[in-house]
Amino acid sequence: MTFIFLLILGMHFQDSTGQVTVIQTPTEKHVQNGQTVTQTCKTSSAIGDPSDGGCKSCFSWYLQKPGESPKLLVHSIKTLYTGTPSRFSGNGADHGTDFTLTISGVQTEDTGDYYCLAVNWISSSYVFTQ
């Protein structure tokens, strides 16, 4: 029986009216091969670029394995990045506050630290922190 360890870390970003927080849950998860796991990020205010009516690259998910740089998995809330296996899926609403990353049929190679990143288009700035 193989257990897979997923460490979930939240990102923070700031807008022109003050700090907006991203809360990511669960913070730690142990699962077995083949199980489905869902991680959630919740922002304290809506994410998106009101000026263009869309999100573009406002929300993404990353996986970082020990000794490696973070690797983009999902961008624009639900678009899989090139090379991301189809067992990964992102979900959430443009201009929303709740976002999920689901891994269907998790595999040992999915072990690592997962990050969500929210970008603030209002002030054109973002912080990618651990």
Described by the principal axes of the CA atoms, the overall outline is globular
Under CATH at level 1, the class stands as Mainly Beta
Percent helix, as a range, is under 10%
CATH fourth-tier homologous superfamily: Immunoglobulins
What's the domain count?
1
Largest sheet: 6 strands, mixed
Structure class: mainly beta
Widest sheet: strand ordering: 5-1-12-7-8-9
Overall pLDDT: 76
Query: Can you count the beta strands?
Result: 12
**What is the radius of gyration?**
14 Å
Q: Strand-residue fraction?
A: over 45%
* CATH level-3 fold name: Immunoglobulin-like
- Output the number of helix runs: 0
Q: Whole-Å distance between the termini?
A: 30 Å
Catalogue the unreliable spans: 1-18
Q: Quickly give the CATH architecture.
A: Sandwich
Order of SSEs: EEEEEEEEEEEE
Protein name: Ig-like domain-containing protein
Signal peptide: 1-18
Pfam families: V-set
Domain Ig-like: 18-130
In short:
It holds the Pfam family V-set. This protein has about 130 residues and is mostly beta strands. Helices cover about 0% and strands about 45% of the residues.
